[in-house]
Hints:
about 0% strand; single chain
Amino acid sequence: xxxxxxxxxxxxxxxxxxxxxxxxxxxxxxxxxxxxxxxxxxxxxxxxxxxxxxxxxxxxxxxxxxxxxxxxxxxxxxxxxxxxxxxxxxxxxxxxxxxxxxxxxxxxxxxxxxxxxxxxxxxxxxxxxxxxxxxxxxxxxxxxxxxxxxxxxxxxxxxxxxxxxxxxxxxxxxxxxxxxxxxxxxxxxxxxxxxxxxxxxxxxxxxxxxxxxxxxxxxxxxxxxxxxxxxxxxxxxxxxxxxxxxxxxxxxxxxxxxxxxxxxxxxxxxxxxxxxxxxxxxxxxxxxxxxxxxxxxxxxxxxxxxxxxxxxxxxxxxxxxxxxxxxxxxxxxxxxxxxxxxxxxxxxxxxxxxxxxxxxxxxxxxxxxxxxxxxxxxxxxxxxxxxxxxxxxxxxxxxxxxxxxxxxxxxxxxxxxxxxxxxxxxxxxxxxxxxxxxxxxxxxxxxxxxxxxxxxx
Length: 457
């Protein structure tokens, strides 16, 4: 059965270049950080490494400020290019027949709205990072015995890099919403691979924290130049026309409600994954936290790769929804879920049985979690990815019904992780608690809702 499914997977990948390119993008995205590690730990001092990881954490936290607007802009652009006459705050509005001419005016207004939102977001986050982050970074540098001047310069460069990243966040929604999925993944590859290559070269040449932060800016500029070519022709004859400011504000008012809900869901996800690591590191120990973080990193990278088929199918799912094409929905959704299962199970087997031996072979100073705990974590993350796929499908109807469950689940996992860590129950109980919380509602509720929506189409 698994062999047949793998043959199907290979066949799908060979027929859909976007799937193969997307898989490469996920490998590059998650692998680039790993490639830097051997060079960083041998060339930077321990305090400097600690400060760099704080910089990386700040980058991740800044991305949460998107607050769910990326998928909302993606959906809105896809609807406009499918021929929708207007956007709705909830639902998809009137039925749009397949083959309907794209609404380039609405698409251009949506892209202009994305431009405005991310430009303002970048400025706001930059001000906050400079006002509150610079004193914090200076304090860390003094405590770690690192020259404060170099850390302050590096922080300023990092802030500029984060601002550029946020300002360019409109690019992926435009590419994904227009069906240029392959080009979007090539854009991601250009970003991540460039940083990985330049970062290694900088470290080998003797560069430090400042040089790494400069590399981040160079990477953003290069990726933007690559994206410029991919964006041509998407908006038709409206590409060079200025959008009506009132129409842009109207688009933002339509997108805001569900985007805010998706942002709250992202916060719940942040609590679900990041807080457990904090609890383990604080109460069990940093070595155990490192093993947990490495295990999660590998399994989350696998999960992201396995979810690619659903992401690739998003434009077709939206088109099938607006056309009320039930058989098309079942075919696209069922195929994406089957591919997710095949990819994750295959990759999980490699992580469980091959990666520990590989780490021992290369003399790694850190190992994965104990086999049973690692297997439990794999099951928990597999089920999370499965219901996340279903939730992703549900959002194609411009509906976000999982706001409260996501927040409550995240809070429950955070509280439980803290209590189990404080009581000395160990990592296995923390992982098991996360699985219990998800299994009690999210793991079954959203796949069931997705299939019911398909059945009613």
